[in-house]
């Protein structure tokens, strides 16, 4: 498989770069092994050339596969040896001059004698192994012909995904493009709406069908449909094969709870990790009491999951509650019924007419198939047998071919096999998706395979994934392109091929997070286990690390019992990447101090993490990526400075409020991430910085010369403020978030450094909460403003909009909060910005009485948020913002001039009301939408009371209760905002967009 080619070639390429660096180093300690290293490098270069020759094939015989695995293992072992060697060199090498340098070098020569002898022996053994692997290839005649396949596909035959939006209309639209789903939606809604005879407990409706039929997509459509009137609260919970009961309860509660202003101490979910199961159940029952609710439990594999969860749903509700369950098992569906009257809805395959419509719209932009391809198209559709996921997967693959010929399509048809045509089982679907995977260019396969490190239904954030890819060496920069740009292209490629589903899309079109369909996840997990790419603990099917001498990557999934985690510590000492997500208890056999070769450590959501664990982690000298996100760690040890190779340190959503002095020794650190965001609308379009403050940084910040991203720094103390003097030394800095909730004088060092960073900054957030005057006036007086900004977010008083804002030609996203004095003249300036895509005017972000979008203004604007502006009396659109797609509104009082010109927004897809909603204003827009050519969705999220609205200071920062109009009810999320632009639409599950057009 090309998986092995990609992984092996990547491993060797990384190693060759390291060997070159080692050979170029002037360490005297290399004497005696330099020649051995050079010979080893030459041998591995020859292997790399051979691997590249094998990359053209999509299938290889067993001997070739075995040889490629051996190459990869040799490369890993050599890299481990080199890293240990260089680590010892760096520990004992100084920067002294003259006699001191000579004496120190001689001392270290003696001191490291044993280490150098061990390394020399290891290198000789590895060189011998590499030579034997090469000889083995020749001995068994594993030449070019052995690896090539007549079915190999030339990657040059693919077209580029210039218009990714073609594959993502459901993100922007209202779901009306679901092919063949209308009748199914009507049928399920009718079943949920039927009157019931007196029955104990909520109504339970199960949707049953095998994988790929679209159960999740149907449930997602029903979840947000306006046809289910009167729903007061909703929750969408992915259950999956391996689940953690406590995590499911927490997810339900987070989606149902109303949260007060995040800056206050009365957050009802603040100590949720300390609650007992009984506490969680009681809280859920309290949220659902006397309300009509809809709970979706997606992908239930075992009736036991429902038996556990049903205790949380009240049986004596005054109003009727509904539970919608999706499952592959008829037995599970039957067992989930709480009464004989509870229905079971069986999913049907698409009819041929709908299959053709779906296939042709997927492959051809026109939706019409040329006559010469009709016959082979029907043959392909016969093999897909009405399964939407199969149809779209194959359709996307064919759509990317530049040459759409009958002969080429016939080749694809032959490769499909006849499993689905004869017997539409899960195995047949796996073959279809495996074909989509095999069709990837070889350099993308290792990156895609890496996605199985995350559990089923896990929402993989783009930023975290990119940083992990980079730490693993799976992507490398190209001239003129950053790692982020390359990785974003990879994600776009995966989406356009329908092998991942986007969860959040920024208004700029960038994918912010994604999920892998559960069947595709099974496919790549099986490949990972077979090729020793990633080993797993926690999956019932792949819960093993056996069968491989050395575990290189290990992922321990949530839900697996502690007693199931059994492996030899000797077997994992070579682990380079360890992922443990959302586990309440520590996997007992894991001893961090023994994992000396770790490069990537992701412990997100692990509540068991202790100070002792942190001390051991700080001994991992090769660590490049460390995520402690969502843990209870409140203080980092000073020993964190020993992690000299660290590139990413993520402590977001933790109690950490200050970094130790030792952190300034991390000269390779690029991403320093702290703080949290709170989102308060279904689409996450309304947000604010969560928690009381960011984290303070120590003096010495200027030593961290590699820093590219700092978020969020609190400069509310003298020491942390003084550290801002050193920002001017960080010439690589592109993203900066700074908070001051104290005196205005603490801004002075920051303002001085900001003038020096004008050429590098692309993202700037400046928040002031002191409320004592014009605290942000220093921005008006900047001598060298950051004119290359792409995102700007200001919170604090200004007398006027800085003049330099009019020169921000690259600015795509702008948000203003509590600036107080910005009025119509400033608004005219913003309307002339050529690249502005997202504009958010939060509470007191605008002081004018009218917001008028005149012709030729805001040419590219797609997202507009207007949040409770005190003096606003009119919002009108007279030809401006022609590309506006989402409008998010909150009014503290009736705007006398009304909301006018909705009909002029020809691209409008959704209008969203939130906070304390005025019915007359809502109804005005609702009626206008009915006659709009796009028929945009109009949604509302109400606060429970006027008092609640007042408690949020008019900002609308409380999670809202849904009303009868078409409303979703997602969890209030606190997490990184990797893109300045907000998500257009939040899909509440692993919806693969399998047949959304």
UniProtKB/TrEMBL annotation:
Domain of life from the UniProt record: Eukaryota
SUPFAM superfamilies for this protein: L domain-like, P-loop containing nucleoside triphosphate hydrolases
Coiled coil found in the keyword field: yes
Domain Disease resistance N-terminal: 11-95
Chain segments carrying region Disordered: 134-159, 933-980
Domain Disease resistance R13L4/SHOC-2-like LRR as annotated: residue spans: 574-937
InterPro entries in alphabetical order: Apaf_helical (IPR042197), Disease_R_plants (IPR044974), LRR_dom_sf (IPR032675), LRR_R13L4/SHOC2-like (IPR055414), NB-ARC (IPR002182), P-loop_NTPase (IPR027417), RX-like_CC (IPR038005), Rx_N (IPR041118)
Annotated GO biological process: defense response to bacterium; innate immune response-activating signaling pathway; plant-type hypersensitive response
Keyword annotations from UniProtKB, A to Z: Coiled coil, Leucine-rich repeat, Nucleotide-binding, Plant defense, Repeat
Residue intervals of the Disease resistance protein winged helix domain: 454-524
Polar residues: compositionally biased ranges: 945-967
Pfam families: LRR_14 (PF23598), NB-ARC (PF00931), Rx_N (PF18052), WHD_DRP (PF23559)
Domain named NB-ARC: residues: 183-366
Stated family: Belongs to the disease resistance NB-LRR family.
Name this protein carries in UniProt: Disease resistance protein RPM1
Source organism of the structure: Aegilops tauschii subsp. strangulata (Goatgrass)
